[in-house]
Automatic annotation (TrEMBL):
InterPro entries per the UniProt record, alphabetical: CBM6, Galactose-bd-like_sf, Ricin_B-like_lectins, Ricin_B_lectin, Sialidase, Sialidase_sf, TAT_signal
UniProt feature, compositional bias: Polar residues: 251-263
Top-level taxon of origin: Bacteria
SMART domains hit by this protein: RICIN
Gene3D superfamilies noted in UniProt: 2.120.10.10, 2.80.10.50, Galactose-binding domain-like
Keywords on record: Signal
Protein name from the UniProt record: RICIN domain-containing protein
Chain spans, region Disordered: 244-266
Cleavable signal peptide: 1-36
CBM6 domain: residues covered: 436-557
Length: 704
């Protein structure tokens, strides 16, 4: 739910609460041919357009400016055979269709490049008096549950009458890839749809349903519940469970029901983790305080999606190591790529500084250790006016994410302000999840450029003033094999017209790269170019072309070949990085630790194998090993070309965000000798003792 805001952001607004829901439309449009093409990132042009409401057609039932759209929701089919890879999108459409609201269904069969309106799920067909729709959620059933076959598509939402005098959570289903829909059931009902987050509130609304399959194979509907005020609970995030495929729903249980009479968790979504646990995210309205209400995002975990004890707890805030967080309308998804345990990815409307003040919002927050330890940033595919300071109204509100069938591409659906119509469009964009990312602030640059701090920049900084014929920014990149790579460039261009840079690879002839105008300086977009790279080290130089643009980061990937994720490996005891001493390229060179040098010898490709991980040094391309497959304590780790021996494999275990890397041959963990904190101290193996010198953290953001 979108909180009102005071001194923490732009002028206060009431939250957007529209509602009604639906059933299959008569004469549904015939489905387009369903094919699953290879996934590829649609990163340019701020994603692709799904829907744009015409000027003068939108309304806001609460008064004030009409938003056009909110609550964009997308799914990528993964359990539908030949239709896998097909994408569906719906949203809260603040435009009347024949006098009522509907849930529109759009489909893409070309990786999100183009979209076709398939049908509308119409509220009045099932509930004639409930003509308002809101808060849709799309879900593909991943396994058979209670009579629902795997691949069934569900649409949950909240519906209400024109006067908002009641609230009803409903579910519809489709068995033909979203072409037609039928009413399945009502999850729950509540009182008038009135937003009042004050501690004296008497509202009894049920809001914001989402769906998941729990650890026992049941279908779970999570939602926000204001009906527990007699217990001192201003609002809870709760659930009901179905064992008959959503036909009926069991007793209500809570995920988080704080009895502080102030905390107000809401807008819950849940994802299943690869270890069988579940992770839920939700906003907490009235935090950090009732007067500074920026709705920071918290998370909790559960062994099965049902037991969230203690339910009085709101869990743990999602923050970076420096205390920055995110707020409002989160959506969580675990994705299988990006790190040894995949990534937990959270999209949210805005970002927060360490004091909880709204401060931009153009990055996902990601965690490479299933929620343990600090979070990092990942640039969004589509950007929008998060703080509603640039002419938008609730843009980026209640967006969603999903990943491709092969797990390598992340798709983002969100509403983006259209400054011509003054409404929000629905757009879908995507980014590669296995790309190598290089930060502009870490590149070599001429003295006539400048480093600019920006909370919305990847890693918090960008390079500006690339304004003279002598200005240049040169990235040194390392790729495993020679070939053609796709390069995504994150930039901003507030000139109001297209600008260019000249780009050259390894000192060769330059070619032009165009940057369409972004909304302003500080609003980021993506440009794309293919580059031919050699195996190993390459340079990519950007120089001034026409007009002006700033550089934030570049990403390199190959659409046909997955790249291993790259990390720095930091010792818990010393805070220093695991490296190959002296940036040596030789077999047998020793491993140790050193403070940040910016050298590729401190970066590691993390490659999964059947019994653990292989760690390839980015500088040398060689594997971290225990020489000679020795098993004794105190043997120094080093590097060698691939041998196939278990001594070049490391078995990972994690606790509290820290990793233990145990050699698969010796059974002994990697450590810094003598718990030293000095530069140059050796990395060696020793019998496990649980001390911090045997614990490591994998860091990805801003490593190069």
């Amino acid at each position: 739910m979108l909180p009102s805001r005071t001194t923490s952001g732009p002028s206060p607004r009431r939250r957007l609460r529209t509602v009604a829901a639906a059933v299959a439309a008569a004469g549904a449009i015939v489905a387009a041919t369903l094919t699953a093409a290879p996934a590829s990132a649609v990163t340019t042009g701020n994603g692709s357009l799904v829907y744009s409401p015409a000027a003068g057609t939108s309304f806001n039932p609460e008064g004030g400016r009409a938003a056009g759209t909110t609550y964009a929701k997308n799914i990528v089919l993964k359990n539908n055979g030949s239709a896998n890879g097909t994408q569906l999108v719906t949203y809260d459409q603040l435009v009347l269709v024949n006098g009522v609201q509907v849930y529109p269904i759009y489909r893409s069969t070309d990786d999100g490049s183009s979209w076709t309106h398939v049908t509308d799920v119409v509220p009045s067909a099932t509930f004639p008096t409930l003509t308002r729709t809101s808060q849709p959620f799309l879900f593909e059933v991943s396994q058979a549950t209670g009579g629902l076959a795997a691949g069934t598509i569900l649409l949950a939402g909240m519906i209400m009458p024109q006067d908002r005098s009641s609230s009803r959570l409903v579910v519809y289903k489709s068995t033909d890839h979203g072409t037609s829909w039928s009413y399945l059931s009502t999850i729950d009902t509540g009182g008038p749809a009135t937003y009042d987050p004050s501690p004296t509130s008497t509202t009894t609304t049920v809001w914001e349903p989402s769906l998941a399959i729990d650890g026992q194979g049941g279908l779970v509907a999570y939602f926000s519940d204001e009906r527990q005020k007699a217990n001192g609970v201003l609002q809870a995030v709760s659930y009901r469970r179905s064992t008959d495929g959503g036909a009926t729903w069991g007793a209500e249980s809570n995920v988080s029901a704080p009895n502080s009479q102030s905390d107000r968790p809401g807008m819950i979504t849940v994802t299943k983790l690869p270890d069988g646990r579940y992770l839920a995210t939700f906003e907490v309205v009235n935090r950090p305080s009732q007067s500074k209400n920026t709705a920071p995002v918290y998370f909790k975990t559960s062994p099965d999606g049902l037991n969230w004890s203690p339910t009085t707890s709101i869990g743990t805030p999602i923050t970076l190591a420096n205390g920055r967080g995110i707020g409002s309308s989160p959506y969580v998804k675990w994705v299988p790529t990006g790190g040894p345990k995949g990534m937990v990815v959270v999209a949210s409307k805005w970002s927060l500084d360490a004091t909880g003040t709204i401060d931009g919002g153009q990055n996902f927050y990601v965690n490479y250790n299933l929620g343990d330890g600090p979070w990092e940033r990942l640039p969004m595919a589509v950007t929008y006016d998060g703080p509603d300071a640039e002419g938008g109204t609730f843009s980026g509100f209640a967006q969603s994410i999903d990943y491709s069938v092969d797990g390598r591409t992340l798709y983002q659906a969100t509403n983006v302000e259209n400054l011509t119509t003054t409404y929000n469009d629905i757009r879908v964009g995507s980014i590669p999840l296995d790309a190598q990312q290089y930060e502009a602030e870490k590149a070599a640059r001429t003295s006539d450029t400048s480093l600019v701090t920006d909370p919305d920049a990847s890693n918090g900084s960008k390079v500006g003033n690339i304004n003279l014929s002598t200005s240049s920014v040169t990235f040194t990149v390392h790729v495993p094999t020679a070939g053609t790579y796709t390069m995504n460039v994150r930039y901003d261009n507030g000139t109001g017209a297209a600008s260019t840079h000249n780009v050259s690879v390894n000192g060769g002839t330059s070619s032009s790269l165009s940057y369409p105008a972004t909304v302003n300086w500080g609003r980021y977009g993506w440009a794309q170019k293919t580059v031919a790279l050699n195996a190993g080290t390459n340079t990519i130089a950007f120089t001034k072309g026409t007009s002006y643009a700033e550089l934030d980061a570049i990403q390199l990937y190959q659409p046909g070949t997955a790249l291993d994720p790259q990390f720095r490996i930091t010792n818990r005891n010393s805070g220093k990085y695991l490296e190959i001493a002296g940036a040596s390229l030789a077999d047998g060179a020793g491993a140790g630790q050193w403070g940040d040098t910016g050298n590729a010898c401190q970066i590691w490709n993390v490659h999964p194998v059947s019994n653990g991980l292989q760690l390839f040094n980015v500088n040398s391309g060689k594997l971290l090993e225990i020489p000679g497959a020795q098993t004794a304590d105190g043997v120094r780790a080093g590097q060698w070309g691939p041998t196939g021996n278990a001594t070049q494999v490391w078995a990972p275990a994690t606790s509290g965000g820290w990793w233990t890397l145990t050699n698969a041959n010796s059974g002994k963990p990697l450590e810094i000798a003598g718990s030293s904190t000095a530069d140059g101290a050796f990395a060696q193996q020793r019998t496990a003792d649980g001390t911090p010198t045997q614990q490591w953290r994998l860091l990805r953001e801003g490593i190069q």
